[in-house]
C-alpha cells in the first residue's frame, strides 16, 4: 500500500526526465509551482486494496503532493486569495479513511 501511495503522489519533476522539469507534467501535477502559477493540478490521493478495504476502507491524503527537491507543501501564505476555513499549509500525511467492508 505504501508503494501505491508513493506512486499516486509522484512529482519529482526536477529529476524525472519524463516531466521535462515541469511540475505540471508529473503524475500528481502541481501547476502552482510553475513560474506563472495556476490554481490547477492534483489535490488529493486515495488508494486501497482488498486487504485495506477489509480493515480500514482506504488511505487518503488531502492536498497537493509535497516532499522532495522543489516540491514543498502548498501554503496559502503569500497567496492573495480568499481561503477561509482552510489550513495555511496542506502538509498532511496518508491516513485511514472510510468504513471497512
Present the secondary structure layout.
Layout: H1 2-8, E1 44-47, H2 50-55, E2 58-62, E3 74-75, E4 89-90, E5 95-97
Antiparallel strand pairs: 1-2, 2-5, 3-4
Describe this structure in words.
The chain has about 100 residues and is an alpha+beta fold. The protein has one domain. The chain has helices at about 1-10, 50-55; strands at about 45, 60, 75, 90, 95. The strands form 2 sheets. The chain has a 3-stranded antiparallel sheet, with helices on one face. The two termini are about 15 Å apart.
Global geometry: flat
Question: How far is the N terminus from the C terminus?
Answer: 17 Å
H and E string: HEHEEEE
Radius of gyration over alpha carbons?
15 Å
Mean pLDDT: 92
What count of domains describes the coordinates? 1
Structural class: alpha+beta
| Strand content range | 15-25%
Task: Offer a quick outline of the entry.
By secondary structure, the chain is α+β, with helices and mostly antiparallel strands. The protein has helices at residues 2-8, 50-55, and strands at residues 44-47, 58-62, 74-75, 89-90, 95-97.
Amino acid at each position: 500500500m505504501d508503494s501505491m501511495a508513493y506512486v499516486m503522489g509522484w512529482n519529482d519533476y526536477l529529476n524525472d526526465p519524463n516531466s521535462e522539469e515541469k511540475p505540471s507534467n508529473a503524475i500528481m501535477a502541481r501547476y502552482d509551482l510553475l513560474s506563472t502559477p495556476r490554481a490547477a493540478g492534483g489535490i488529493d490521493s486515495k488508494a486501497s486494496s482488498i486487504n485495506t478495504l477489509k480493515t480500514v476502507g482506504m488511505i487518503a491524503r488531502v492536498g497537493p503532493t509535497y516532499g522532495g527537491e522543489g516540491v514543498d507543501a502548498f501554503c496559502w501564505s503569500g497567496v492573495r486569495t480568499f481561503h477561509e476555513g482552510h489550513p495555511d499549509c496542506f502538509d498532511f500525511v496518508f491516513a485511514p479513511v472510510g468504513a471497512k467492508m
